[in-house]
Amino acid sequence: MEDNTTSRPLILVTNDDGIFAKGIKELVKAIHPFGEVVVVAPDKPQSGKSHAVTLDAPLWYMVSKFDDADRAYKCTGTPSDCIKIALYRIMDRKPDLIISGINHGSNSSVNILYSGTMGAAMEGAIHGIPSIGFSLLSFNSDADFAAAAHFAAIITEKTISRLGSLPFVCLNVNIPCLPIDEIKGIKVVRQSKGEWIEDFVRNYHPSNKRPYYWLTGEYHDLEPDSHDTDTWHLDNGYIAIQPVTVDCTDYKALDAMNGEGWF
Amino acid sequence: MEDNTTSRPLILVTNDDGIFAKGIKELVKAIHPFGEVVVVAPDKPQSGKSHAVTLDAPLWYMVSKFDDADRAYKCTGTPSDCIKIALYRIMDRKPDLIISGINHGSNSSVNILYSGTMGAAMEGAIHGIPSIGFSLLSFNSDADFAAAAHFAAIITEKTISRLGSLPFVCLNVNIPCLPIDEIKGIKVVRQSKGEWIEDFVRNYHPSNKRPYYWLTGEYHDLEPDSHDTDTWHLDNGYIAIQPVTVDCTDYKALDAMNGEGWF
User: Taking the complete model, does pTM exceed 0.90, yes or no?
Assistant: First the structure.
């Protein structure tokens, strides 16, 4: 780990569990040797907020204390809001790298679509800024981040060494909740097909007796026999890195529809 | 337009402008001849909510009156919540088709990522249900939906005629705000590269004088010279249909990273 004081890259950090979560503290502690770190993170948990932006309320932000960060701000908005307000109001130059996380919980497979952590990273990618989202496969608020922080530092350092000639603009990195020496390796893989089978738990309001429903569910891997996916690698002790695009076009379907002359 | 009472497809309808918006009323009026229509839509505007799901509060839903729908429910959640609760609590069988919209405002280019309308359609696609999001290029709450409704009916009827052998699972359909006879055609195209350059407008709280910020911005097309994009076609009077995937993997980057032996 070198402290490149001559040309320290500017790193913008956010998350979706909120600025007081353990994951973002462990992340900043792990990566601050590699650059100037500015934290702009939600002032409260924003899990499941996807790429949402706040259109119907103003945003507030204020300076926050944060160990190991050069500067830190907490913001009332979503993770994507944090990136936008950081880029256009808070920072005086474009960051060289955006890092989001370390999320408490998996963002592999379709979870990327619901994830505020990855919403923030993808917001960076829209603006052409290399962005990485890190997630640990544990929802425990006091989870052991030793391995996640260790490998986040390795992946961050490697990325910084190639800034300007990266083959990707956004990475979704998921890390098994295992001791460092039980992690089998790091693999660059594709997103697996999966879905949540939901079980809305019903309860009743104590006064008016109206039913309400809590969203709960269970993740189902739709291709358990494929060995080239994020899900398979995570299940087998590997760190899974998914390069991410913000182009949602299904090119096979595009060609098929035009081939069939739909319109 | 035939009323196929022998095998009427079950169509689930939602939106992100809320169940009382003009766009969803015009949509249901246009498509109800093609099937049994069940509306499950947010009870209030949910624009910009992307694929967000509600994890920190329970959901409520109740029956709502809705002209031309077979059944309708308003729900306290996001558009994605509406799809989930419809599939797992409200409907007694899986819908044959999910339609979201008609959105007040464009969901072309990167706007698909912020869009609650498209978040709902993509939620349907995750579950393997053919899904279409329709958007009109006008944010006016009383916009003229004549052309949008006309073409939504055509695209819906065509999709229903091929249920079971569709070349796509999700479509993002954007429609210029023009009279029907000024629409030049319907094109199946890719998502253009673009970004919002944000301008956070600052104001001050009347009592404590703290500054707050409203997210506003201007869309910038990053490839105005490409003539195969949604943006170009919309600017030139065409309806743009983008087939959408829920696989966010950047396969070019994946191959490049593995080719370079990153890990």
Answer: yes
